[in-house]
Amino acid sequence: MRRTGRMAIFWAMTANLASIGAAYAASRAVTALPDGWRFIQADPEGAETPTLDDASWQAVSVPHDWAIAGPFDPNAKAAGENGFLPSGVAWYRKALNVMPRQGRRYFIEFDGIMERSGIWVNGHHVGYRPMGYVSQRYDLTRHLRADGRNIIAVRADTSAAPSSRWYTGSGIYRRVRLIETSDIHIPQGGTYVQATAISDAQATIAVTADIQNDSGSATVVKVELVLADPDGREVARTVTASASIAAGRTMILPVEVALPRPRRWDINDPALYHATIRIVAADGTLLDDETVPFGVREARFDPATGFWLNDRNFKLKGVALHHDGGAVGAAVPLAVWRQRLTALKAQGVNAIRTAHNVPSPEFLDLTDELGLIVMDELFDQWNVAKTPEDYHLFFGDWHKRDTLDMVRRDRNHPSIILWSAGNEIHDTAYPVQAKAALRSILDIVHAADPSRPVTMALFRPNVTKDYDNGLADMLDVVGQNYRENELIAASKQNPKRSIVGTENAHNRSNWIPVRDYAPFSGMFLWTGVDYLGEANRSGWPNIQNPAGLLDRTGRQKISGMERESWWSDRPVLHVVRNADPAAAGPSTDGAGGPNQPVLPTMIAVATPKPKVALFDDWTPQDRSPHDETIEVYSNCKQVEAFLNGRSLGTLPINQDAAPRRWAVRYTPGEVRATCRDPGSEAVSDSLRTAGKPVRIELKPDAPTVGSGFDDMVYVRARVVDANGVTVPSASHRLHFAIKGAGRLIATDNGSSVDYTPFPSRDRMALDGLAVAMVRGAGKGRFTITATAEGLKSGTVDLGATK
Questions:
Q1: Does residue 477 contact residue 453 with C-beta atoms inside 8 Å?
Q2: Helix or strand run (H / E) with residue 672
Q3: Would you tell me how many other CB atoms lie within 10 Å of the CB of residue 312?
Q4: Which of 8, 424, 536, 784 is most buried, by CB atoms within 10 Å?
């Protein structure tokens, strides 16, 4: 059950709704457990025992990723796959003050522990989970002490390395909560809400509730369902007939209600309803309750026309995202995802692929809220390894439970329109084995969620004959990574196949086939944001894969500017400098110009991109007259360019989405490009030549920030000249200091080769830029100051709230 801030109004509303004879004394209680944890990055003997003295351990709050603090080490065991950051065993302990009561159950729920985790309560081992991304719930009831003195101990183990191809983080890196229910309760993921028979007049809301009876006798119950609209008003209510559940058994009870005049969840109007499900005893006592956000929407894939949402046909313009938040590691404040997802959506992105694992619950809450479509991915490997210590060691024993738990947890999110069973699964070289594994996953997903199709990201299917041996046609939607024309050929080979590009490169030659072939549902770029790890091919000191539209700090890159001109529905114009002499000629390579070569797939996505000649400035190192090219990314039909106020002429849009270019002789001053479409003349962009660096300018993303884990603001630093123009050659070491009710979380500059630990207060400017990530420390004001030798310091004042 997710009780985020945006749901507060609904919890207040549901607490006051009059239940049909129900008493509320026994309702479910959910308590977040962020504080009071003790931590040690070691593996001491007896760490699970309740009598251990942990006073010398570090006091921490969770979510907590201990590895992101570093240090970076070229000899790190997990090497470049993990961004040269540390791995190992760590323990967490917490005193849990719970006085168990008769007829009540007590569960602890973890949204993610990385990885191979073990859980103890008062020295009793209650669970183990090898996967680091799956949510876990454990029943503590029979091990709790009557006097309330209870100790939770957690062992998190990333010492088996490398166990992944990207940065995983380490520790209890997602949220933890205590859940108290009646002995008769809804188990984890036990509520499923579907909207069917949708019309403008009404929709049918069909709910199934798993009801588990952990009491010692049969119990008669009924299910009460209350729906609230996006404004929090009750719009429907019903109650089922009574049913008897035997002791120790689980029963699934269905309930339906008509929802009048439904407001559809859509990318432009992400309307969320809430369903409150109450389990009521025969005497009217409330035994358990759960409130689930859901959306009313119709999504489908059509073999002839691609993707449809609410009777609208459009392309999925997607990006893949790993789970790290850059300088904050795997323990990502929601503010980081909000900044990133908002920036991506502003660039025309409408879909997210969770690569290559199920994300945190609050990430999906945010995609629901923002109106972003999601492909929710389950696995990066099945039985065949990609790294020596990865999930292939556990797939045979654990994939059924992991698949079921992940689908049951996420199936109520309206943003999810597609499940992915795996990414570039190497089992496909062994078709019999691959088909058996895929069938196992498909059966589980379809049983737990019959409303959504399943795909997988096929890896070189023409090599392993997936289109000929029947494996591809086991999928509801055929997905393939890269090689868009191969997927088009597979569609033409069998017109009954729905198709989607599950992973795609940034080149124009990758986008045009998707854009122009109607059955192609869309694509997911690799990747949306630069991410830590997968630097094994490039090697030290590279710590990341820089393939994003945004850098690690959420700043738009030039690749994002170009993509925005292709994908945005509003007028877009960006001007950059292309210093490649060959760029002055016509673009004929089909990939975006001579500075964007088409690379073999595995090289293109697993290594830093070749050094290109694109710059977001008009400040070349050579200030003497020489040839330069003004390059413009725009969806305007006509664009006019200027150099120091002199028109260079107007160019029409290119049908193949190629950038428009003007070859000029460099002179310092200002370059400007302006949209000349009627009504869009205000859409323009400019670059100015920078002088000598003079001062630091600070600009926060927001004027106030809260003090909780999910609260965070980027304070963006620029080294500027006397006219306020960013100096791209500036590489000063900036020192950030905070005075007042604020706290510095990390600093960053987005560099692939800066291995300064992220908690450092010092950060080199990259292209004249750096950021400080801050949050409040109580109610009040605080000041952030950035200083550097030879520069006038920058200062900004922010407000902090509790």
A1: yes
A2: strand 670-675
A3: 11
A4: 784
> Residue 117: pLDDT band by 50, 70, 90 thresholds?
very high
Q: Please give the angle made by the CA atoms of 477, 481 and 483, to the nearest 5 degrees.
A: 110
Amino acid symbol at 253 = L
Question: Quick check: helix, strand or coil at residue 629?
Answer: strand
Contact 679, 636 (CB under 8 A): no
* pLDDT mean over 123-136: 97
- In whole angstroms, what is the distance from residue 347 CA to residue 413 CA? 23
Q: Are 338 and 366 in contact (CB under 8 A)?
A: yes
Q: Where are the beta strands (DSSP E) in 165-272?
A: 176-182, 184-185, 191-196, 202-213, 219-228, 234-239, 243-245, 250-260
pLDDT tier for residue 597 given thresholds of 50, 70 and 90:
very low
Residue with tokens 């260079």: 648
- Residue 27: alpha-carbon gap to chain centroid: 32
Task: Please work out, in degrees rounded to the nearest 5, the angle formed at the alpha carbon of residue 649 by the alpha carbons of 643 and 655.
Answer: 120
Closest CA to 735 of 774, 795, 788, 789: 788
pTM score of the predicted model: 0.93
Asked if 302 contacts 336 with a C-beta cutoff of 8 angstroms, the reply is no
pLDDT tens-digit map of 382-391 = 999 999 999 9
Q: What is the residue whose two structure tokens read 């428009």?
A: 660
Three-class secondary structure assignment of 722-739:
CCCCECCCCCCEEEEEEE
Give Cβ neighbours of residue 492 (< 8 Å, ≥ 6 apart): none
Residue 696 confidence (pLDDT) above 60: yes
| Position 764 pLDDT exceeds 90 | yes
166 burial level (CB within 10 Å; 0-12, 13-18, 19+): buried
Sheet order of strands, 627-634 included: 614-615, 573-578, 627-634, 660-665
Tell me which residue of 538, 408, 332 sits closest to 134, measured CA to CA: 408
Residue 340 CA to residue 351 CA, distance in Å, equals 13
**Range list of β-strands (E), 407-519:** 416-423, 454-458, 478-481, 499-504
What distance in Å separates the CA atoms of residue 475 and residue 489, rounded to the nearest whole number?
Answer: 17
Residue bearing tokens 């008009």: 618
Q: Phi/psi of residue 140, each to 5°?
A: -95, -5
* 640-667: burial string, b at 16+ Cβ within 10 Å, e else: bbbbeeeebeebebeeebbbbbbebebe
Nearest of 396, 402, 311, 368 to residue 128 by alpha carbon = 402
Residue 12 has pLDDT above 60, yes or no: no
- Alpha-carbon gap, residue 481 to 356, rounded angstroms: 13
Copy the structure tokens of residue 747: 């600093």
Closest among 651, 661, 736, 652 to 700, alpha carbons compared: 736
Q: Decide the pairing of beta strands 312-313 and 306-309.
A: antiparallel
What is the structure's pLDDT at 584?
64
In this structure, the strands spanning 316-321 and 520-525 are parallel
* Per-residue pLDDT, 1: 39
Tens-digit pLDDT profile for residues 633-647: 999 999 999 999 999
What pLDDT is recorded for position 26? 64
Q: What percent of the chain has pLDDT over 90?
A: 91
* Nearest to 548, CA basis, from 760, 732, 755, 325: 325
- Contacts for 253 with CB less than 8 Å, ≥ 6 apart: 208, 209, 211, 221, 223, 240, 243
DSSP conformation class of 612: -
Residue 787 amino acid letter: T
- Residues 371, 156: contact at Cβ < 8 Å? no
**Degrees, nearest 5: CA angle 473-479-482:** 135
Where in 282-368 does DSSP place strands (E)? 286-294, 299-302, 306-309, 312-313, 316-321, 351-354
Give the pair of three-digit tokens for residue 616: 């977001």
